Amino acid sequence: MDDVDFPQSTVNSPPVQRRILLLITDLEIGGTPTVVRELAIRLRDVPGVHVEVAGLSKAGPLCDLLAAAGIQCTALGARGTWDLSIVRKLLRLLRHERIDTVFSFLIHANALAAGVSIFYRTARYFQSIQTTQPRPAWHWRLQRLVQRAADKIAVPSASVAAVGRRRSGISGARIVIIPNAIELAEFRSGMGVPPMISDHRRDARATSSIGFIGRLDPIKRIPDLLESLALLPSHIRLEIFGEGGERQQIEAEIARLHLADRVTLHGVIARPQEALSKIDLLVLPSDAEGFGLVLIEAMAANVPVVATNVDGIRDVVIDGQTGLLVPPRSPRQLAGAISRLIDDDALRSQLVQNAAADVRRRFTWEVVLPQYLRLLDLHTTSVVKSKQQ
């Protein structure tokens, strides 16, 4: 069906003064959908604000999570990248819900919002770029065009800001850096903080688990992590949590390196806490990141991190202070950093303590939500306080 039936809105207690739509490319589990879900939940609790979420493609698990939080979620049902019927569907949604603010995330949603802004002029438009990934290059060329429709462009890190200026010609005055955030209490209670490695490693033959959490995508360089595992002692295992288009290549690499008995592919998980409770160390070997939400999730859960020294990641992890960074595409140096953290109890303990303090200082919703409120011009003195207080 071309048309989408929009459910009746569940509006906040009257009077509703602002009606905000968060528009995202897909409604699956992932870093940016998590950011959108958590932002929607907090905007829901701002007096006088009605917020809802829409995705360009089919309904996904994000809709179920939003529905459980009492937030309306609409799947526009695009049949492909160039399905222009969703322009009409989005217009119908905006008019039906009397939306006055559209905040889009990622290039496809940014482009759709920019196109609709020609026909729906009663709303303010904000966009978000969440990546530093250089390819496909046409994404950045398209962003150069569509950014003109937005009042401001929100990015999660200084790295994304620099890339946006360089590749899409966005002026620095129009970019607002708002980091991603977590609810600290959700990673400190109810999941159980993972034991320090020294608590359960009785000798050199005991098992240590390193983990990767994220989509299985070439930009994540998971084969580099597999090569580094092959260089490490056999008591070190790798737990991979996530799904994606590179799964078959990863399985082939596991077979090639004879690592089948040391690697487990768990698939998609609903909550990162499930994975973090099962690993001693998080590794993110990416070529590029916009931020790396999983890094602050691990840091909040007292799981030490090893990652690559690339755009986005270096905005989050301070090398030698809150984690260890190594050059990208260097399995041998990656293996060295992993081995160092597993073997050095004092270093690991210090990094974990520093990382937890840094998350509290920079990356909690208590710190980040006011930045979104300023961006969206939501002047209120009675915002519901963070659950962590």
Which secondary structure elements does this structure contain, and how are they paired or packed?
Blueprint: E1 18-24, H1 31-44, E2 49-55, H2 61-68, E3 73-75, H3 85-97, E4 101-105, H4 107-116, E5 124-128, H5 137-146, E6 152-155, H6 158-168, E7 175-177, H7 197-200, E8 208-213, H8 222-231, E9 236-241, H9 247-256, E10 263-267, H10 272-276, E11 281-284, H11 293-300, E12 305-308, E13 324-326, H12 331-343, H13 345-362, H14 365-375
Parallel strand pairs: 1-2, 1-4, 2-3, 4-5, 5-6, 6-7, 8-9, 8-11, 9-10, 11-12, 12-13
Helix pairs in contact: 3-4, 4-5, 8-12
Notable features of this structure?
six-stranded parallel β-sheet, Rossmann fold, 14 helices, alpha/beta, seven-stranded parallel β-sheet, 389 residues
Short description, anyone?
Helix content is 37%, strand content 16%. The protein has 389 residues and is of the alpha/beta class. The protein has a seven-stranded parallel sheet, sandwiched between helices.
Q: What share of residues is helical?
A: 25-40%
Helix segment tally: 14
Question: What order do the SSEs take from the amino end to the carboxyl end, as H and E?
Answer: EHEHEHEHEHEHEHEHEHEHEHEEHHH
Give the full name of the CATH homologous superfamily of the largest domain: Glycogen Phosphorylase B
Task: Measure the end-to-end span.
Answer: 46 Å
**Rg, Cα atoms, Å:** 21 Å
Overall domain count: 2
Question: Your description of this structure?
Answer:
With 389 residues, this protein is of the alpha/beta class. It has two domains: 18-181 and 364-375, Rossmann fold (3-Layer(aba) Sandwich), CATH 3.40.50; 185-362, Rossmann fold, CATH 3.40.50. Helix content is 37%, strand content 16%. It has 14 helices and 13 strands. The protein has a seven-stranded parallel beta sheet with strand order 3-2-1-4-5-6-7, with helices on both faces. The protein has a six-stranded parallel beta sheet with strand order 10-9-8-11-12-13, sandwiched between helices.
